Amino acid sequence: MRRLLVFGAGLAAIAALAAFILSAPRMIASDTIPTGDGDPVAGATLFHAGGCSSCHAPADATTDDERLQMAGGLALKTEFGTFIVPNISPSEVSGIGGWSNADFVNAMARGVSPDGRHYYPSFPYTSYQRMTVNDLIDLKAYMDTLPAVESEGGRHDLGFPYSVRRGLGLWKRLYLDGVAFEPDGDQSAAWNRGAYLVEGPGHCAECHTPRDGLGGLDRNRWMAGAPYPGGDGRVPNITPHRDGVGNWTDADIAYSLESGFTPDFDSLGGSMAAVVRNTARLTPDDRAAMATYLRSLAPLANDE
Amino acid sequence: MAHRIGLMVAGLALMTGMAIAHEGAMGVVKERMDAMKGVGSSMRPLVAIMRGQSAFDADTVRDAGLAIARHGRVAAEKFPPGSGGGVSEARDAIWAEDSTFDAKMNAFIARAETLSVSADEGEVAFRAAFQSLAQTCGDCHETYRIKK
Questions:
Q1: Inter-chain touch A260–B137, beta carbons under 8 Å
Q2: Interface list for B 43-82 with A (CB within 8 A)
Q3: Quick check: A149 pLDDT over 90?
Q4: Gap between the Cα atoms of A10 and A3, Å rounded
Q5: pLDDT at A220
Q6: What does pTM read for this prediction?
Q7: Cross-chain Cβ contact B141/A255 below 8 Å
Q8: Which of A31, A193, B52, B81 has CA atoms 20 to 30 A from the CA of A17?
């Protein structure tokens, strides 16, 4: 009996050790990340493609200037608990003003903070990991030009076991492959640009693709629509199926990202209204490229 | 006896039917949806000009602007408190104490009227007026509409 107990305790210790090792933050070695300043003009495009202000600007922001104040504070209600969006303005006190390029790249592409803790995937690094290191450094250069704002911050309010940050390391083993976007030589330049914008900075799949029980994206249902996060209704199917945008032309998709109008003269609402404010600032070529990519996806029916 | 019960059932059915009709839930929801559809179809010729699919035409712009304002004024009257839920796509936030719904609705109607006036000022003025009108669609749908 005692032998059995010792054996059981030993097994538990091994499992705990394995979990501890497997859940360790994995980072990009900082000596491989360039230290020079990026290009803020190129970064501005990525900032708008990424829609950073949709979550990080104050919830009551109404002007373009207010939407550039990355003070955070918005409460994101999810089935895992409530996340408080952090300050990512260049304030050294409340924001990310003191960060190096390596700090920024590891936050965006690996979901790891400068002090080595996991971020929760409510911050969509599962998409941002597709961005190139150079683009991330350009994005940082642009964000460094934004106003530094001070804010109180706040703590996430999550239930167990989601409150155990270290456990995210195991989640990342399943859902964070750490692979940046690789252009597909068989596809056009426009397709590759669109795929990069949609899958990387645009992080469209984070809302348009449904999640499995552990909160990871269900890749078999890529862009086929999902429940509206934190509220009533649905996020639409945007695959080229008749349940999605199958009856839209490429130009219709591009125009909806410019103006917010669908081909039947409805206007995009909910959190997509903020997305359109951002995609309206992209070039017509970039919006057309996103349409090219979306129209190439596997057409999937709604699952109802 | 059977006759009397039958009458009671019929009377009850009639009263229930009237209660639903009086409450008007189906009615007002349908009416505001129709008004919004009216806005959408009046948008059609304007979007065609914006997308370069048809040439700028002052009469078209003026008429469409006036029609949108008219549909908007109808729609604005069709959101009585408690008319959300069910098939409605209206969010409860419309009737919350801190609601800005009426202000957004009025801005929408005012900008549709501005657009109709822009018809006589030329295409540049029209394009600016359209952008400013279109913004009010997204502004309101962002907060007050459930996507189903």
A1: yes
A2: 43-44, 47, 50-51
A3: yes
A4: 10
A5: 96
A6: 0.89
A7: no
A8: A31
| Confidence (pLDDT) at B62 | 98
**How near does any CA of chain A get to the CA of B122, in Å?**
21
Listed residue (B130, B126, B133) closest to B56, CA to CA: B126
CB A196 within 8 A of CB A49: no
In three-state form (DSSP H/G/I as H, E/B as E, the rest C), the secondary structure along chain B is CHHHHHHHHHHHHHHHHHHHHHHCHHHHHHHHHHHHHHHHHHHHHHHHHHCCCCCCCHHHHHHHHHHHHHHHHHHHCCCCCCCCCCCCCECHHHHCCCCCHHHHHHHHHHHHHHHHHHHHHCHHHHHHHHHHHHHHHHHHHHHHECCC
- B141 and A228 within 8 Å at the Cβ level: the answer is no
Q: Which residues of B touch A262 (CB under 8 A)?
A: none
The backbone torsions φ and ψ at residue A272, rounded to the nearest 5 degrees and listed phi first, read -70, -25
Other Cβ atoms closer than 10 A to A88? 22
Go through chain B and tell me how many residues it has: 148
Residue for token digits 């065609």? B48
In 10 A of CB B15, how many CB atoms?
A: 10
pLDDT tens-digit readout, A43-97:
999 999 999 999 999 988 888 899 999 999 999 888 889 999 999 999 999 999 9
Name the minimum distance, in Å, from the CA of B7 to any CA of chain A: 42
Sheet hosting strand A75-78, strand order edge to edge: A75-78, A81-84, A157-158
Q: What is the ipTM of this complex?
A: 0.84
